[in-house]
Amino acid sequence: MLKKKSKPQKPQPHTPSITLVGNPNVGKSAIFNLLTGSYVIVSNYPGTTVEVSRGTCKGIDGRVEVIDTPGVNNLIPQSEDERVARDILLREGHRRVVQVADAKNLRRALFLTSQLAEMGLPVVLDLNMWDECLERGISIDTGKLQSLLGIPVVRTVATEKQGIGHLLNALPQAAVPSLKVDFGGEIEEGISRIEPLIPNGYPRRAMALMLLSGDFTVAEKLGYSKTIHGEVSKIRNSIQKKFSDPLSYIINRLRAAYVERLFHETVHTAPKRIESQPFLRASFFFFFVPVFAFALGYKIMDMLLFFFQGYLSSAPPLGLILKLVSGSASCVLFCLHLYRKDLRTRRTVSEVLGDLTMHPIAAYPILITALWAIYKLVGVFGAGVCVDFMEKKVFGYAGTPSGGFDLWFPVPFAGKDVTLLHVPFNGINYYLGLLGQMLVSPQNLGYQLFLDGQAGLIQVGLTYAIAIVFPIVGFFFLAFGLMEDSGYLPRLAVMLDKLFKRIGLTGKAVLPMVLGLGCGTMATLTTRILDTKKERIIATLLMALAIPCSAQLGVIAFVMGSISGFYFALYVFIIAFQLILVGFVASKILPGGRSDFIMEVPPFRCPKLYNILLKTAYRVKWFLREAVPLFLMGTLALFILSKTGALKYIELAGRPVVSNWLGLPPETAEGFILGFLRRDYGAVSLFKALERVHGSVGAEPAQLLVALVVITLFVPCLANFLVIIKERGIATAALIIGFIVPYAFLVGGVLNIIMKAF
Amino acid sequence: MTEPKIEEVLEHIWTHEEEFGKRASKDMLSQWIDPQAVDSVLQDMLRQKFVHMYNSLIVLTATGRKEAEQVIRRHRLAERLLKDILAVKHDTMDSSACEFEHFLNDEVTTSICTLLGHPVRCPHGKLIPPGECCQRAKKILRPLVLSLLELTPGEEAKVAYITTEHHPRLDRLSSMGLLPGTVIRVHQKQPTLVIQMGETQLALDEDIARDIYVRRSH
């Protein structure tokens, strides 16, 4: 996720500061949170910190500024993220560095340590994820490492808050690592020739190596004159001529070889590994897996039989037998596969799960199960039960009492509910209505501004925001947090990479695209993790066009689900088809190449409930701060339009398009206007408008399908549009909107013609 | 053995066809060798039935093609030997390989090829024409050095060299620790290639993996 600065603070030149540096996904943000007590989102997905966060820490020597940086693999930068981190380290002034390392991946950490040494920065090495290191039977001789590097080395487990005290205590002892990589005759000679050209106050050796590696961005930063630039290139070219591989590659290789020696002196891997707890293990292998596999086989056969219902209705036991057979077959296959390999090799449960979730075959049923679970949690429980309760009981309606609700719990197996007590609460809006009526009459404009049933700020705006959107988005973020922290998302990236390549993206785009199902605005901000400009534009476009956000999806699923499963399936198919079609065309038209897909797959982890709740709370808070004002604005706009009568004119103006081309009643024009303020809001009012036209029978399914497809494809909400402008620039944003609006109506019109033909 | 001058010309004709997919013409010969020697060399080649003339185009005969492939093979194998084993610098590598191609005999060529593990491509990324020893090795033993894509899931191997000409890719891979000498294990190949190196699990494009050559550990 995008980790934004929590407290905007200007860096003061003389405050002592700590910069957190390290490879991607090693827990820099988790350490940052622990040091500063503020919160930036921690994620088990590499490369999610794209912005620099600042905070302050009350260390033992007073207040210290703490800076969190994007993860890097090399301080001779190859990407924008790495450049950002490198530039922070090169800034003048006295600063200390905490290098956060993944203890089980020390080799790659030491690669960076040697570069920090060249930069002449005082470093404390923090071996984070020490627990995972132990689990894997890796032992690191920290004492020896400390003396070899000449810097303090501490061990932490950030997610368990272990070792932070040691880290704070070690800070004053930070020292420049005593490492010096010898790059051999020619390159060393080149370094000594470039070094005198570098101005005072900069780490000469590090800069010389960057220039030799062909990274001239560093030269621009220094305000280099043309002549020096030319001289450096001359030196570089003369050395490059002597090697058949690029200099940067040779420098990396020599550095890696140097680090390898250090690594072998300090790290020993014992063949013995720590296994999962016997109970967890047994219940996973002998209960959970068989039951899951059985249920899966049973369900698949159930769905197959659904299509042949007609043939089987005469022999009901046959269906049951088939289902049981299929369930057992799947159970046996699944278990045999696991028992043959994984049970015997004594791998841990999380390792097995990590493999299964990206297994070429097993991953798909798991994906479907995960989607189903998310649907149950967000769609049924969140959008159904919670929204219903919040809208009808907690908020209620001005003028009509809700009649209160019961507190009850079900008695298992008895089929009975026990009612504890009846709460005679008639809804916030009802009481506000009573209060309002004491002061003014219900026909008063002031009363209607707040409590009008069609466009009142409280009755409609606030109630929608809190009662409808809040539960849906909250549960979605909860589910998303689970997928993120367990390490499921990167595995999804591995599975979807080939499909995403067809639409000009790589597997890496899974994070923004899935998050887009939650909130397109937030997801647009995270497109920064993508490597090329082309990919960012495609991802932004597709999210604005064809990815409905959870609030909208919740409303649509509810509306469509209540009418016909077939039409809902059709809706999903049309939208998915548009997504792939537009992505495919955009990937061919837009200039620029696709970036390489090289992605680390972090280990599968048991997510920490506390971290997920914290993250969900943070995201929901962010969402409410963005959404509630827009809801109120939208409602106000609607109120003014309807009271001044302007709404009628807009409907009139939109009539040719809406009624002739899309075949919808003219009243629905209102929904399209609202759709720009909030996407889900548009969907709701379209549904309401269709219901009003058709009376209590409800809307005609074909009309509803057209309306919902158009509102899904139609413009993103105002907040999303503003973020697109901010992230992609006004020209690109205008192009995106200029494409989406006519395209949405085009698709809707064609769909209308097709639907009428059948 | 064939005369060096003729070998030189055969090599040029062959690479011209490889690079441009077109036949060489007679007037190109003067760019490749001493213009005064053109006629005599051409006569020699025609006499030995290495080429025949088709209007002004020079067409390799089957024998000529075989001879040319042997020269190319010696040249490119020499390049690999100089670069991988002897770590000779780039400009020296090019000039020495040009000399090597003329004096290596079949037996030495075969042993160099075997020593290098029957490499498929030269350091410039071009294909090395396979010799008899390579065919034999393919049948009897599995080749020692092969592309990462050819490994099956679960197999372990050591990275031998990376042939990509795409420098940013090379930098990125090497910063992540994927370098010659790194031991890797193929975790899975579908739906996307995933490799395990140390404690890092890495998902990779097939395009990238194709350029990574590895040596099986056993």
Question: Cα distance, first to last residue of chain B?
Answer: 38 Å
User: Using CB atoms under 8 Å apart, which protein chain pair has the greatest interface?
Assistant: A-B, 47 and 35 residues
Sheet/helix structural class of chain B: alpha+beta
Low-confidence stretches of chain A: 1-13
Tally of DSSP helical segments of chain A: 32
Radius of gyration of chain A, rounded?
Answer: 30 Å
Q: Give the number of helices of chain B.
A: 9
Order of helices and strands of chain B: HEHHEEHHHHEEHEEEHE
The SS-based structural class of chain A is: alpha/beta
> How many strand elements of chain A?
11
Strand content of chain A: 5-15%
Tell me the overall shape of chain B: elongated
Biggest sheet of chain A: strands side by side, in what order?
2-3-1-4-5-7
| Overall morphology of chain A | globular
Q: Terminal Cα separation of chain A, in Å?
A: 45 Å
Strand order of the largest sheet of chain B: 4-9-5-6-7-8
Write the SSE topology.
The complex is a heterodimer of chains A (758) and B (218).
Chain A: E1 17-22, H1 28-36, E2 53-59, E3 62-68, H2 80-90, E4 95-102, H3 106-118, E5 123-128, H4 130-135, E6 138-140, H5 142-149, E7 153-155, H6 164-170, H7 185-194, H8 204-212, H9 217-221, H10 226-240, H11 247-266, E8 267-269, H12 278-307, H13 309-312, H14 316-343, H15 349-356, H16 363-395, E9 405-411, E10 416-423, H17 428-439, H18 445-451, H19 457-486, H20 488-502, H21 510-516, H22 520-526, H23 533-546, H24 550-563, H25 565-589, E11 598-600, H26 609-644, H27 646-661, H28 669-677, H29 679-694, H30 701-713, H31 718-728, H32 730-757
Parallel strand pairs in A: 1-3, 1-4, 4-5, 5-7
Antiparallel strand pairs in A: 2-3, 6-8, 9-10
Helix pairs in contact in A: 3-11, 7-8, 7-10, 12-14, 16-19, 16-24, 19-26, 21-22, 22-31, 23-25, 23-31, 23-32, 24-29, 24-30, 25-30, 28-29, 29-30, 30-32, 31-32
Chain B: H1 4-20, E1 24-25, H2 29-32, H3 38-47, E2 51-54, E3 57-60, H4 62-85, H5 90-103, H6 106-115, H7 132-140, E4 145-147, E5 156-162, H8 167-175, E6 183-188, E7 193-197, E8 200-204, H9 206-210, E9 212-216
Helix pairs in contact in B: 1-4, 4-5
